[in-house]
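Re-running Mannose-1-phosphate guanylyltransferase/mannose-6-phosphate isomerase to confirm reproducibility after the cluster update. Everything else is unchanged from the original entry.
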Amino acid sequence: MHGVNKNIPIRPVILCGGSGTRLWPLSRRFEPKQFQKLVGDRSLFQETLERFSGASFGRPVILTNRDHEERVQVDLEGLDFGAGSPRIVVEPAIRSTAPAIAAAALVMLEEDADPVILVAPSDHSVGKPGLLVSAVEAGLAFALDGGIVLFGITPTAPETGFGYIRSGSTRIGAVHPVEAFVEKPDIEHARALVEDGRHSWNSGMFMFRASTIVAEMEIHAPAVLAAVREALLTAGRENGAVRLGEAFARAESVSIDNAVMEKSSRLGVIPVAPAWDDLGSFEALWRTSVQDRDENVVMGEVMLAGVRRSYVRAGRRVVAVVGLSNVVVVETEDAVLVASRALSQDVKLIAQRLTTEGHAAADRHALDVRACGSSRVVDTGDYGSVARISVGAGRVLDIAGDGEAEARHILVLEGNVAIRSGTGKAVLSAGQSFAWPNAEPLTFANLDDAEASLLVCSFLPRTSREIHYPARRNVS
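Result of re-run:
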């Protein structure tokens, strides 16, 4: 064991990217599924952080990108980290897991003497986290000796959406040798893999020393490692965050499986059954959530009559469903989804079409949550739009300019707020209003120790006030 204390803390690396298009309209480009409260009172990202916050774990590192950095900060608010506030590593361009993990390992080697790293996605559900933590602890000795531990999930069904890992019959402690990786199989092959008893699902969770993964990338993915090293040399560092330099964008977008795992001779796998699910579709959400006597999953203010085996979720309105079975119905402030449960994977086609057409519903919810406050569009029309703004106690919130607006009228509902733009400033109290004669970006500074709220009305020029009805489209 090279004389190393086996009780050293394991440093979690939480991968916090992705888009989650199969869970639209809950998941959006800037607010993907890891930030949604899908199976409890906390987001999947928050649950992941808590899962790896016990005595065995050290200060976490969070890998994210520019699109999601502020949303990460929202979910970190109010969380307690005994091992220290997370180090956030921000990618300037979206790449796959190999460049991200290389960046995390290099950052950790700057801070610690060759720590053990546990890599985990932030958007999975684990119903029995204690079993997973026990498996991690059981694999520590193997990682300390220079091995790479994979955590395989004992299959509960023949799944075609996951890759599989074949374990050898021998083992070192809890760790079996990895004999082979199996790409996502067809259903008949998946049944054979499950019946074989030697195969587990590839969960995307790994554990190794920082020096181990760097050495393996030197051998198997040197160009990726070189780009990441250059990005770290030019990184910006402030407020606990490391913002990687633009060289990161030159790294090949390759997964850690393809770059290293499928080529390495250091692998071992620990099969574990922690009630894990990647929650990759509404079918998965229906399967893993609490069901009523009619096998329905119901969330929010929902009324059902003659409905069975369905997933029905209401946001701010009453949702009523009559005489349907095996359906998905999801209502949010700005969108409604109705789909067959059997085709819930195809929801991604809707999300992709919205992205192609530049529709706002592809990117954000009507409620835009930030660390310092929030903004919600409450009405739109040919006159312009109305948004309700909330600013946290003592916080400052910036909102973008509105290039089409002729003027904006601001009314303070609660609190005392200093408002600034490039051409002026004003201090307003509850009940006071101000007509801002331009479309410049605005800054709202809350002067109190309680949340402040405002209404911002943006008015279009009369010459451009027309109502446009979108054409009906089908997705094929």
